[in-house]
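Protein fold
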Amino acid sequence: MTKTYLNSSKSWLNKYQKYLGEFVYGGIDGAVTTFAVVSGAVGAGLNNKVIIILGFANLLADGFAMSIGAYLSIKSTKDNYNKHRAIARFGIENNPERKKEKVKQIYQNKGFEGELLQKVVNTITEDRDSWVDVIMKDGLMLAKETKSSLMTGFVTYISFILIGLIPLVIYVWDYIVAFPGNLFLWTGILTSIGFIFIGLLKTYVTQTSKIKGILETLLLGILAAGVSYYVGDLLEKIITI
Protein backbone atom coordinates (compact mmCIF):
# COMPACT_ATOMS: atom_id res chain seq x y z
CA MET A 1 0.00 0.00 0.00
CA THR A 2 2.85 2.35 0.88
CA LYS A 3 4.54 1.56 -2.45
CA THR A 4 1.31 2.29 -4.32
CA TYR A 5 0.95 5.62 -2.50
CA LEU A 6 4.54 6.59 -3.30
CA ASN A 7 4.11 5.66 -6.96
CA SER A 8 0.88 7.66 -7.09
CA SER A 9 2.57 10.68 -5.49
CA LYS A 10 5.51 10.43 -7.88
CA SER A 11 3.14 10.25 -10.85
CA TRP A 12 1.27 13.33 -9.61
CA LEU A 13 4.51 15.27 -9.17
CA ASN A 14 5.75 14.32 -12.64
CA LYS A 15 2.45 15.46 -14.12
CA TYR A 16 2.37 18.88 -12.49
CA GLN A 17 6.05 19.77 -12.00
CA LYS A 18 6.07 21.40 -15.45
CA TYR A 19 3.91 24.16 -13.91
CA LEU A 20 6.52 24.95 -11.24
CA GLY A 21 7.74 27.92 -13.30
CA GLU A 22 4.24 29.45 -13.32
CA PHE A 23 3.93 28.89 -9.56
CA VAL A 24 7.30 30.54 -8.91
CA TYR A 25 6.80 33.62 -11.07
CA GLY A 26 3.19 34.04 -9.97
CA GLY A 27 4.34 33.86 -6.35
CA ILE A 28 7.18 36.33 -6.86
CA ASP A 29 4.87 38.83 -8.55
CA GLY A 30 2.20 38.37 -5.88
CA ALA A 31 4.59 38.92 -3.00
CA VAL A 32 6.44 41.84 -4.62
CA THR A 33 3.37 43.80 -5.74
CA THR A 34 1.34 43.26 -2.56
CA PHE A 35 4.28 44.09 -0.30
CA ALA A 36 4.92 47.18 -2.40
CA VAL A 37 1.29 48.30 -1.98
CA VAL A 38 1.46 47.74 1.78
CA SER A 39 4.81 49.57 2.01
CA GLY A 40 3.53 52.53 0.00
CA ALA A 41 0.40 52.76 2.13
CA VAL A 42 2.45 52.60 5.36
CA GLY A 43 4.82 55.25 4.02
CA ALA A 44 1.84 57.48 3.24
CA GLY A 45 0.53 57.01 6.79
CA LEU A 46 -2.72 55.34 5.76
CA ASN A 47 -4.69 53.48 8.41
CA ASN A 48 -4.85 49.70 8.61
CA LYS A 49 -8.32 49.37 7.08
CA VAL A 50 -7.19 51.23 3.97
CA ILE A 51 -4.05 49.07 3.78
CA ILE A 52 -6.19 45.91 3.89
CA ILE A 53 -8.58 47.25 1.22
CA LEU A 54 -5.76 48.34 -1.11
CA GLY A 55 -3.86 45.12 -0.50
CA PHE A 56 -6.75 42.79 -1.29
CA ALA A 57 -7.89 44.87 -4.27
CA ASN A 58 -4.37 44.61 -5.71
CA LEU A 59 -4.10 40.93 -4.81
CA LEU A 60 -7.30 39.86 -6.54
CA ALA A 61 -7.18 42.21 -9.55
CA ASP A 62 -3.47 41.94 -10.38
CA GLY A 63 -3.50 38.19 -9.77
CA PHE A 64 -6.40 37.78 -12.18
CA ALA A 65 -4.72 39.96 -14.80
CA MET A 66 -1.49 38.00 -14.52
CA SER A 67 -3.29 34.65 -14.79
CA ILE A 68 -5.13 35.84 -17.91
CA GLY A 69 -1.80 36.87 -19.42
CA ALA A 70 -0.30 33.44 -18.65
CA TYR A 71 -3.37 31.70 -20.11
CA LEU A 72 -3.29 33.74 -23.32
CA SER A 73 0.46 33.24 -23.72
CA ILE A 74 0.17 29.43 -23.72
CA LYS A 75 -2.99 29.50 -25.84
CA SER A 76 -1.34 31.75 -28.44
CA THR A 77 1.67 29.42 -28.60
CA LYS A 78 -0.62 26.43 -29.16
CA ASP A 79 -2.71 28.24 -31.77
CA ASN A 80 0.44 29.24 -33.66
CA TYR A 81 1.76 25.68 -33.57
CA ASN A 82 -1.55 24.21 -34.75
CA LYS A 83 -1.76 26.76 -37.58
CA HIS A 84 1.69 25.89 -38.91
CA ARG A 85 1.04 22.17 -38.47
CA ALA A 86 -2.13 22.47 -40.57
CA ILE A 87 -0.15 24.36 -43.24
CA ALA A 88 2.55 21.67 -43.24
CA ARG A 89 -0.02 18.88 -43.56
CA PHE A 90 -1.74 20.75 -46.40
CA GLY A 91 1.60 21.07 -48.19
CA ILE A 92 2.30 17.35 -47.81
CA GLU A 93 -1.11 16.42 -49.20
CA ASN A 94 -0.96 18.83 -52.12
CA ASN A 95 2.74 19.00 -52.98
CA PRO A 96 4.35 15.86 -51.51
CA GLU A 97 7.48 15.95 -53.70
CA ARG A 98 8.41 19.43 -52.54
CA LYS A 99 7.87 18.48 -48.88
CA LYS A 100 9.83 15.28 -49.42
CA GLU A 101 12.71 17.36 -50.70
CA LYS A 102 12.41 19.50 -47.56
CA VAL A 103 12.90 16.40 -45.38
CA LYS A 104 15.87 15.39 -47.53
CA GLN A 105 17.49 18.81 -47.04
CA ILE A 106 16.94 18.60 -43.29
CA TYR A 107 18.74 15.26 -43.02
CA GLN A 108 21.47 16.30 -45.43
CA ASN A 109 22.22 19.14 -43.03
CA LYS A 110 22.42 16.55 -40.24
CA GLY A 111 25.16 14.73 -42.16
CA PHE A 112 23.19 11.93 -43.82
CA GLU A 113 24.03 11.08 -47.43
CA GLY A 114 23.70 8.49 -50.15
CA GLU A 115 21.63 5.35 -49.63
CA LEU A 116 21.22 5.95 -45.92
CA LEU A 117 19.80 9.42 -46.55
CA GLN A 118 17.27 8.07 -49.04
CA LYS A 119 16.26 5.27 -46.67
CA VAL A 120 15.69 7.75 -43.81
CA VAL A 121 13.63 10.05 -46.05
CA ASN A 122 11.51 7.15 -47.35
CA THR A 123 10.89 5.83 -43.83
CA ILE A 124 9.81 9.21 -42.50
CA THR A 125 7.59 10.09 -45.44
CA GLU A 126 5.74 6.77 -45.25
CA ASP A 127 3.88 8.10 -42.20
CA ARG A 128 2.12 11.47 -42.50
CA ASP A 129 2.32 12.27 -38.79
CA SER A 130 6.06 11.57 -38.62
CA TRP A 131 6.51 13.60 -41.79
CA VAL A 132 4.69 16.60 -40.30
CA ASP A 133 6.59 16.21 -37.00
CA VAL A 134 9.96 16.45 -38.77
CA ILE A 135 8.91 19.54 -40.72
CA MET A 136 7.59 21.20 -37.56
CA LYS A 137 10.55 20.37 -35.34
CA ASP A 138 13.54 20.47 -37.67
CA GLY A 139 12.18 22.64 -40.48
CA LEU A 140 10.20 25.32 -38.65
CA MET A 141 11.88 24.87 -35.24
CA LEU A 142 8.50 24.70 -33.52
CA ALA A 143 7.87 22.43 -30.54
CA LYS A 144 4.45 21.33 -29.36
CA GLU A 145 3.38 23.03 -26.11
CA THR A 146 2.34 20.34 -23.61
CA LYS A 147 1.07 22.65 -20.87
CA SER A 148 -2.64 23.26 -20.46
CA SER A 149 -3.48 26.94 -20.93
CA LEU A 150 -6.22 26.70 -18.28
CA MET A 151 -3.94 24.98 -15.77
CA THR A 152 -1.19 27.53 -16.46
CA GLY A 153 -3.55 30.42 -15.70
CA PHE A 154 -4.96 28.64 -12.63
CA VAL A 155 -1.54 27.84 -11.13
CA THR A 156 -0.37 31.41 -11.73
CA TYR A 157 -3.45 32.85 -10.00
CA ILE A 158 -3.33 30.47 -7.03
CA SER A 159 0.37 31.14 -6.51
CA PHE A 160 -0.14 34.91 -6.78
CA ILE A 161 -2.89 34.74 -4.13
CA LEU A 162 -1.13 32.34 -1.73
CA ILE A 163 2.24 34.10 -1.65
CA GLY A 164 0.71 37.55 -2.10
CA LEU A 165 -1.40 37.06 1.03
CA ILE A 166 1.70 36.98 3.24
CA PRO A 167 2.20 40.79 3.42
CA LEU A 168 -1.44 41.18 4.51
CA VAL A 169 -1.60 38.49 7.20
CA ILE A 170 -0.41 40.68 10.09
CA TYR A 171 -2.78 43.53 9.17
CA VAL A 172 -5.75 41.16 8.95
CA TRP A 173 -4.70 39.66 12.29
CA ASP A 174 -4.52 43.12 13.84
CA TYR A 175 -7.95 44.00 12.40
CA ILE A 176 -9.56 40.90 13.97
CA VAL A 177 -7.55 40.77 17.21
CA ALA A 178 -4.96 43.39 18.18
CA PHE A 179 -1.49 42.24 17.12
CA PRO A 180 1.08 42.58 19.93
CA GLY A 181 3.96 44.05 17.95
CA ASN A 182 5.14 46.36 15.20
CA LEU A 183 2.89 45.55 12.25
CA PHE A 184 5.20 46.63 9.44
CA LEU A 185 8.26 45.02 11.02
CA TRP A 186 6.57 41.63 11.34
CA THR A 187 5.07 41.98 7.89
CA GLY A 188 8.58 42.52 6.55
CA ILE A 189 9.86 39.44 8.40
CA LEU A 190 7.05 37.17 7.15
CA THR A 191 7.33 38.49 3.60
CA SER A 192 11.09 37.94 3.63
CA ILE A 193 10.47 34.30 4.59
CA GLY A 194 8.05 34.11 1.66
CA PHE A 195 10.69 35.56 -0.66
CA ILE A 196 13.24 33.04 0.59
CA PHE A 197 10.82 30.15 -0.03
CA ILE A 198 9.85 31.27 -3.53
CA GLY A 199 13.47 32.15 -4.35
CA LEU A 200 14.48 28.61 -3.40
CA LEU A 201 11.80 27.17 -5.68
CA LYS A 202 13.02 29.45 -8.47
CA THR A 203 16.42 27.77 -8.42
CA TYR A 204 14.79 24.48 -9.44
CA VAL A 205 13.31 26.21 -12.49
CA THR A 206 16.40 28.21 -13.52
CA GLN A 207 18.93 25.58 -12.37
CA THR A 208 21.03 28.26 -10.66
CA SER A 209 22.72 28.54 -7.27
CA LYS A 210 20.29 28.37 -4.34
CA ILE A 211 22.02 31.25 -2.56
CA LYS A 212 21.92 33.39 -5.71
CA GLY A 213 18.25 32.61 -6.37
CA ILE A 214 17.20 33.41 -2.80
CA LEU A 215 19.21 36.64 -2.61
CA GLU A 216 17.95 37.88 -5.99
CA THR A 217 14.32 37.37 -5.00
CA LEU A 218 14.82 38.81 -1.53
CA LEU A 219 16.63 41.91 -2.81
CA LEU A 220 13.98 42.44 -5.48
CA GLY A 221 11.25 42.45 -2.84
CA ILE A 222 13.18 44.77 -0.51
CA LEU A 223 13.92 47.19 -3.36
CA ALA A 224 10.27 47.30 -4.48
CA ALA A 225 9.09 47.81 -0.91
CA GLY A 226 11.68 50.53 -0.25
CA VAL A 227 10.75 52.47 -3.38
CA SER A 228 7.03 52.20 -2.59
CA TYR A 229 7.51 53.24 1.04
CA TYR A 230 9.50 56.38 0.24
CA VAL A 231 7.26 57.35 -2.68
CA GLY A 232 4.25 57.00 -0.39
CA ASP A 233 5.97 59.03 2.30
CA LEU A 234 6.98 61.74 -0.21
CA LEU A 235 3.50 61.99 -1.74
CA GLU A 236 1.92 62.19 1.69
CA LYS A 237 4.14 65.14 2.56
CA ILE A 238 3.55 66.90 -0.77
CA ILE A 239 -0.20 66.47 -0.61
CA THR A 240 -0.30 67.59 3.02
CA ILE A 241 1.63 70.74 2.09
Summary: Residues 48-94 form the longest helix (47 residues). The radius of gyration is 26 Å. Residues 124 and 131 are 6 Å apart (CA to CA).
